[in-house]
Amino acid sequence: MKNLVLLGGGYGNMRVMQRLLPDALPDEYSITLIDRAPFHGLKTEFYALAAGTESDKDVRVEFPKDARLNFAYGEITSIDLDKQIVSMGETHVDYDELIIGLGCEDKYHNVPGADEFTYSIQSIMQARDTYSAIADLPSGSTVGVVGAGLSGIELASELRESRSDLNIKLFDRGERILPAFPEKLSNYVKKWFDQHNVEVIPHSNVVKVEPGKLYNNDETYDVDLCVWTAGIQPVEIVRNLPVEFGEGSRVRINQYHQIPTHRNVYVVGDCALLPHAPSAQLAEVQAEQIVDILKKEWNGEELPETMPELKLQGFLGSLGEKEGFAFLMDRTVTGRIARLMKSGVLWLYKYHNG
C-alpha cells in the first residue's frame, strides 16, 4: 500500500482531501494526515475567537472521514526528504508523496521583546490564550495591536465590539491602511475606526516591547496588552529543511508546486513561495493544481509544460458584526453587503466541509 502524507490540516490539505476522497484516490493508496489538532481550524476566524465574539466550536470543523484516511496527531520533529520519513518523536511515518502544508507563525523582525511580551492569533491555541488574557483586563485598559493588515484590522474592530470599555491602538506601518488597495477602501476602514474610537497610528515602526510598554519610533506607549499581527513566516521545521528559500523564508517550488530536488514533495499554502500574498484562498487554488498533478503522475500522463496562473477572486474583511469591506475583481465593496458576503463564504465553507 502506498501512502500520500499530508502535513498540516489547513486550507490547502483540506482541499486535497476533498478532491481525492472518496473516489479519486488510486486503489493502492491511503492518505495519512499529520496535525497537532484533531480538527481543522478556521484560521481566517481566529481574530474573532481572540476577541471573544465567536466560541471555540465556531472556528473549527471536523476532518473528513474515510476508510483510507488515517490520522497521526502530534508535533512533527523532523522531515527527512531523502529517506522519505516524517517523525513525531519516536513515531515515524513513511511516505511515497508528501504535501507540506504546515502554515506559518509570527515573524517578529528581530524586535526585542516582541516574541516574549506580545500575544498572537496564528494558531487556535494562541488565539485561546489571547482571548483569556483580554478577558482578564479591567475596564479602561489599553490594548495595542501591532500590524494593520487584514488580521490586525479585523481583530481591532471585533475587539471594539466585544469590549467597548477598552482603549484600542492600532499601529500601522504605512501612511494609510491597506495601501496596496484603492484609497476608497482605506478611507472607509479608517472612517469606521474613527467613528468607533479606535486610534490608528500611521508610520509606525515598533522597535521594542516591554511588559506594559511599546516603543514606536521615538515615542513610548503604555499598553496593558499587546497583540502582534505584523508579519508571518513559515514554521520553523520548514525553515530548517535543506531546500532553497526565497522571499519571506518561503520554499522555492517548480511550476508543479514541487521541491525541485525532491519532486515527490509538494508545498502548499503559507510555506510556498508564490506570486501572491499568503491566504486561505491561495492555498485552496494551489491545492487544486496539486491534485491535478498527482492524478496525472498516478496515471502516467505527461505533465503540461506550464501550469495555469493562480487566479484569486480578491479578499473579504469584516469590521465587527455588521460592516465589512471587500476587493473583488478590481471592485471595492463596503458596508453591510461586504459583511454578508464574508458570512456567506464562511457558511458555504463549513457546509461543504461537513
From TrEMBL:
Swiss-Prot/TrEMBL catalytic activity: a quinone + NADH + H(+) = a quinol + NAD(+)
Coiled coil: none
Keywords: FAD, Flavoprotein, Oxidoreductase
Domain FAD/NAD(P)-binding positions: 3-280
Single GO MF annotation: NADH dehydrogenase (quinone) (non-electrogenic) activity
Highest rank taxon of the organism: Bacteria
Stored InterPro entries: FAD/NAD-bd_sf, FAD/NAD-binding_dom, NADH-Q_oxidoreductase
Gene Ontology BP, a term: aerobic electron transport chain
Annotated Pfam families: Pyr_redox_2 (PF07992)
EC number: 1.6.5.9
Enzyme class: oxidoreductase
Cofactor: FAD
Family label: Belongs to the NADH dehydrogenase family.
Protein name, as recorded: Type II NADH:quinone oxidoreductase
Lineage: Bacteria, Bacillati, Bacillota, Bacilli, Bacillales
